Amino acid sequence: MRLGYEASRVQNWAATTSCRGHHVICIAVVVLLAIATCALGEEPPDAGTQQEEENTGQDFTKPLSRLDVRYKYQQVTGDLNLHMGTLRLDKPFVLGGGRQLSTRFDLPILHTNVPSRDNTDGDYETGLGDSLMQALLISPPIGRGAAAFGTQVILPTGTEDHFGAGGSLRLRRRCA
Question: Taking the model in full, what pTM does it have?
Fold first, then answer.
């Protein structure tokens, strides 16, 4: 399989778009969809046999396996716009003893005309934002609730400066 282009095609194409960013986006989308296909195959068994409310996934102590495509629009100022699509994969794993490990992966894809060091003319550019990985360890049910703790890791995958946090890895604690 050949992944390259002729030199003249690359130069012409790179003059109008970010060559590196488009390849990264395509590869990331294919990888995420492959992971989602494998990960969404099985649901964790229900913890209880009692009749419960419909689980919409909003309760973090009752995670669902799902793949979401989210969209957000923001008018920054005047004619400056930000369009953000996010592929989100949530996958819980049953650990035994009533405990679960809930995982999440977010891959944001941005399209904006906000000027920056990489885009001084304010042209529309498309690329990846910083991706997020999260793992939460969820306790066995305690009465009507449960407790959880874990971490989020924000990876510097932004293809341009204004699509991420400038190349720094960030960690966030999570507990509830």
Answer: 0.67
